[in-house]
Design goal:
The chain is mostly helical and 193 residues long. The chain contains seven helices and no strands. α6 runs antiparallel to α7. The longest helix is centred in the C-terminal third of the chain and has 21 residues. The termini are far apart.
Length: 193
């Protein structure tokens, strides 16, 4: 077996020779400006053609700022959200639960219409989503508002189907007050589209 002699040229490690002073193994392509084959093409120094130079593109300036005027961001700590808009939402369960508990002919609504009473109670609790959204895992004000809007829709349906039948009574007043308070608070809650 014959070994090939190193190619002619400057010694390894000398200026113009292979970098690092390390002899490449046979068949390995050397790095830098040295080539074992005369006339072999070497890429020009500098960036490759079509490569971008300068700062990398990113979002436009100002797009990573906080909420726009009129929008409210969820608190960073995942706590409760309070504001003047939260007061009607926090009060809404009181007239509804009192109205459901009013006894007419020795029966309250929980005994007379249990399914509807439980539905209305769940809806009035669901309307509190914009206040308690971060606590229960709703990540944004928009998600919390949407959950509250769905619950308010259920409360309006309850008022239309059941509450209007009692409109001339104390029970009907409680249903109406709870529905109006829930819708009013939700209208001003953050996250409304």
């Amino acid at each position: 077996m014959t070994t090939s002699a190193p190619p002619p040229g400057p010694p390894y490690g000398a200026p113009g020779g292979p970098p690092g002073g390390v002899r490449p193994s046979p068949g390995a392509r050397p790095q830098g400006g040295w080539s074992p084959l005369p006339g072999a093409h070497q890429p020009p120094p500098g960036p490759m053609p079509g490569a971008q130079t300068g700062p990398m593109p990113g979002p436009p300036p100002g797009s990573m700022q906080g909420p726009h005027p009129g929008q409210h961001a969820a608190p960073a700590g995942g706590g409760l959200q309070f504001g003047p808009w939260a007061l009607p939402l926090l009060i809404a369960p009181i007239p509804l639960i009192l109205a459901l508990a009013i006894r007419v002919a020795k029966q309250d609504e929980y005994q007379h219409n249990l399914a509807w009473a439980l539905f209305a109670t769940a809806c009035v609790i669901g309307v509190l989503a914009p206040v308690f959204g971060p606590v229960v895992g709703l990540r944004s004000a928009q998600q919390a508002w949407m959950a509250g809007a769905i619950a308010a829709g259920g409360l309006v349906a309850f008022w239309l189907l059941i509450g209007l039948g009692y409109v001339d009574s104390n029970r009907g007043f409680g249903y109406t007050a709870a529905t109006l308070l829930a819708c009013l608070g939700l209208y001003f809650a953050p996250g409304r589209p």
